[in-house]
Design brief:
single chain, about 800 residues, alpha+beta, LSM_dom_sf, 25 helices, five-stranded antiparallel beta sheet
Length: about 800
């Protein structure tokens, strides 16, 4: 009975969602149908360029007047938006006038040019002449209007740039000022000495909200408002549980078993909170904004409330997804169950604080309250959020220490988790110190930056898990999709693993880039967070080093870019070396060369990007180039030569990692090709450092290049009285029986020398690699001696030369 009931409830909910706008518009405003019919039947109205230009010019003058007399950041922000919108309207007007001008031009081309004065006046009729003149006048008027609209567009764009500069200067001044400590009476003065102007503005704004409320309950709009509110209550109360059940059913029944199911279910928890709260907030907003009797400030306030509700729902949803107290098996982070249960109240508490004080801040902005009232609201929000954030690591450590004292096993906290806890604690402490010493604006900035950074990192954490698990699941040979891809494209498991690794790396890279952009540009607090004193602010945004065009703000950006770039480069190098390249058919030497070349090119690009971000003008670096030229000519010549030689070795690859080479009497295996030198490991495991330039300029013997085979040649000397054919057959049998000797090319015996000392026979056989020649020759010699002794064949003994003194000659006549 539960499935039909759920289906009926879902159908009823969809019907109500579809009928609520109809009930609010068709039943409450019966005259709209006739109006729409009249509007459909009406012919399109041509743009009145003169009236539009007059309207745009008035808007531009009005924005200029308001900018000149405004010092409120929120008002300047609204004026900036108005200037940008005005520029867009002017551009749209130019776009609308261009076809009319083209039409006039085509008509003039049909009429042709006017006849010359010396030609016959009867060459054309007076009617054609008048028509040409009329068209020329209209074309000139259109040209003037297009130029005027373009000028308005340019002026609006320049005005927007000026507003941005004014906001930046005002913001720097605000950061440099001390607003008073939260422990002082100046901070709490709005509660003691109430501002009459603030009370009047709050009363006016309250009347506007009341009018919107009363308008929603007028007889023509009452039933639609009831339906919308009931739907909002139903979606906000029961929608999340139903949506979580539905997404859980999808994950369990439609997704394959594995990590993808867990990451999907964890992400579904956050998604359910965002969708249901967002739908409920939009329904509530639609209840009070359906009628047209609302002013712009109320509409903007309601729109900001919807965004704030979605933002708070995102905080709560991410917290619930991280902890996963209801379903611990969905938890991605390594958090112990007692710790997760102890942290259960913090996500909704933090989301509630952000929502409440966000409403207060938006109300202050809409009303335009005085500076003390605004500062007090910002200070209270920062105080409570900082205390809540500081309690998170304290509560977590307390629970872990308690469990450790009781002897329970806890997951080992990773260095990243410890770093996050430390960053939260330090930021919360900095916020409290800023509030105590009176820098409320800085405390507010740090508060919202803390929340924003936590949200961005949490979203990236879940999305990276989801992308990586999805890629591995889609290309897994054990899943249906992987098997289908494997059969369709005739791939093997290795190619599927490569595709999964490559796509997951691309996805992680894109997500990390989005995270960097969001962290750098997605702040909704102040935009210059690092300066407290006015003098430091002037240096921070000043001219900097004029010769090199270096501004301290650019230095910070360059350092951030260099740090992020080095981290990404090392991560990419580790991924290539450990994950992607081992799954290819490349040999280890080629993989090492590619990783080294990728690393060197990456570091060069990072340095160039950092220098560009630093604002260095290359035309002002002539003295640096000159100094480098002199240095290269003397001390740096060898370093540069070895560096270029290293790049040649990595690109041409005459030698690579793993090759057996001989150079200058040194023979060994190449273990690493660095930027300056190459490491060669000898047979005794010692290492010789050879400069890269020697491998380019000297003769190098590469014994393993091109899949070279080893040659095992043994020369033996036999006596003259042996049978050469018998010995030849014996030697060939020994070579053929040895497993290391290849069958092709076949072993051979060569009669290399015949002398008085004996017969020299050389036997040759090929082995698979030069590295096994020594062991193969040793085994062959053992077998040859064994077979020679069994056959009774002896090797030729070395001949000895004996020198004896001849006896003295005896005389024929001894008596002579």
């Amino acid at each position: 009975m539960r499935k039909p009931l759920h289906s009926f409830c879902s159908y009823l909910l969809l019907c109500l969602l579809a009928l609520s706008p109809i009930a609010g518009q068709a039943a409450d405003a019966p005259g709209k149908q006739q109006q729409s019919q009249d509007g459909a039947a009406a012919a399109p109205v041509k743009v009145n360029a003169t009236a539009e230009l007059t309207k745009l010019q008035k808007q531009l003058d009005s924005i200029k007047q308001q900018v000149s007399g405004s010092n409120n950041d929120n008002k300047l922000s609204g004026l900036n938006d108005a200037a940008l919108e005005l520029a867009a309207d002017a551009d749209a007007l130019v776009t609308a006038l261009i076809p009319d001008r083209a039409q006039l031009q085509s008509q003039l081309e049909v009429l042709g040019p006017a006849p010359a004065p010396d030609q016959n006046a009867m060459a054309e009729t007076s009617q054609v002449t008048r028509q040409r003149a009329t068209l020329n006048v209209q074309k000139g008027k259109l040209d003037d209007q297009i130029k005027q609209a373009q000028a308005i567009k340019d002026n609006a764009a320049n005005l927007s740039a000026q507003i941005v500069a004014l906001r930046r200067n005002a913001l720097r001044t605000q950061l440099a000022l001390n607003s008073g400590s939260i422990l002082g009476g100046r901070f709490w003065s709005p509660l003691v000495d109430k501002q009459a102007e603030d009370a009047r503005r709050f009363e006016t704004f309250g009347q506007q909200i009341s009018q919107a409320w009363e308008g929603a309950w007028q007889p023509d709009w009452r039933y639609g408002s009831i339906i919308c509110l009931l739907l909002a209550i139903a979606v906000g109360t029961y929608g999340r549980h139903l949506l979580e059940r539905g997404l859980a059913w999808v994950g369990i029944n439609l997704l394959p078993e594995g990590r993808l199911r867990r990451s999907f279910l964890a992400s579904a928890t956050a998604l359910a909170s965002i969708l249901t709260i967002g739908i409920a907030a939009n329904l509530v907003a639609y209840t009070f904004t359906r009628h047209t009797e609302l002013i712009d400030s109320v509409l903007a306030f309601v729109d900001n409330m919807v965004k704030l509700a979605v933002f708070s729902a995102l905080i709560s949803g991410l917290g619930r997804a991280f902890l996963s107290n209801q379903r611990p098996s969905w938890r991605l982070a390594t958090i112990a169950d007692p710790v997760a249960r102890g942290m259960k109240s913090f996500p909704p508490l933090l989301a509630g604080l952000i929502f409440i004080f966000g409403i207060i801040e938006q109300t202050n902005n809409a009303v335009g309250t005085s500076v003390p009232t605004t500062i007090m609201g910002n200070g209270l929000a920062s105080l409570l959020v900082a205390i809540t954030a500081a309690m998170i690591p304290i509560r977590s450590n307390r629970i872990r220490n308690k469990l450790a004292a009781e002897g329970e096993a806890l997951p080992i906290r990773s260095p990243v988790d410890a770093l996050i806890h430390l960053a939260i604690s330090i930021t919360a402490f900095a916020i409290l110190i800023s509030l105590l010493i009176g820098y409320i604006a800085l405390a507010r900035f740090l508060t919202y930056e803390l929340v924003w950074v936590a949200i961005v990192l949490s979203c990236i954490y879940f999305l990276i898990h989801l992308v990586v698990d999805a890629c591995e699941s889609v290309f897994s040979p054990s899943n249906f999709t992987g098997q289908r891809i494997k059969r369709s494209l005739n791939l093997d498991d290795r190619h599927l693993a490569q595709a999964a690794a490559l796509l997951s790396a691309i996805g992680k890279t894109m997500l990390l880039l989005f995270a960097v952009v969001a962290l750098l540009n997605g702040t909704f607090g102040t935009t210059t967070p690092l300066v407290l004193l006015q003098n430091a602010i002037e240096i921070y945004g000043g001219k900097g080093l004029e010769k090199l065009n270096i501004v301290p703000a650019h230095v910070l950006n360059a350092l951030i870019l260099a740090g992020v770039g080095i981290y990404v480069l090392r991560s990419a190098r580790r991924w290539l070396d450990k994950d992607f390249l081992p799954k290819t058919m490349m040999e280890p030497g080629l993989r090492s060369s590619l990783v080294t070349l990728f690393s060197n090119v990456g570091y060069v690009l990072i340095i160039l990007l950092a220098l560009t971000t630093l604002g260095i003008r290359w035309n002002n670096l002539a003295w640096i180039v000159s100094a480098l030229s002199v240095g290269i000519g003397f001390g740096l010549q060898e370093i540069v030569k070895n560096f270029i030689s290293g790049l040649i070795l990595l690109t041409e690859r005459p030698v690579k990692v793993g090759d057996l080479i001989s150079i200058s009497g040194i023979e060994g295996d190449i273990r690493r090709i660095n930027v300056r030198a190459t490491e060669i490991q000898l047979g005794d495991r010692s290492t010789v450092i050879v400069p890269n330039s020697q491998l380019i300029s000297q003769n190098v013997r590469n014994a393993t290049m091109g899949n070279a085979q080893g040659v095992a040649t043994i020369a033996l000397t036999f006596p003259l009285d042996i049978d050469p054919e018998q010995v030849r057959t014996l030697l060939l049998d020994v070579y053929r029986e040895n497993e290391a000797i290849l069958d092709s090319p076949a072993p051979s015996v060569t009669f290399s020398q015949l002398s008085s000392t004996g017969i020299v026979l050389s036997v040759t056989g090929f082995v698979s690699s030069p590295r096994v020649v020594g062991n193969a020759k040793s085994d062959l010699l053992f077998e040859i001696l064994k077979h020679l002794r069994a056959a009774g064949i002896a090797l030729s003994a070395p001949q000895k030369m004996i020198l004896e003194n001849a006896p003295a000659p005896v005389p024929d006549n001894p008596t002579a």
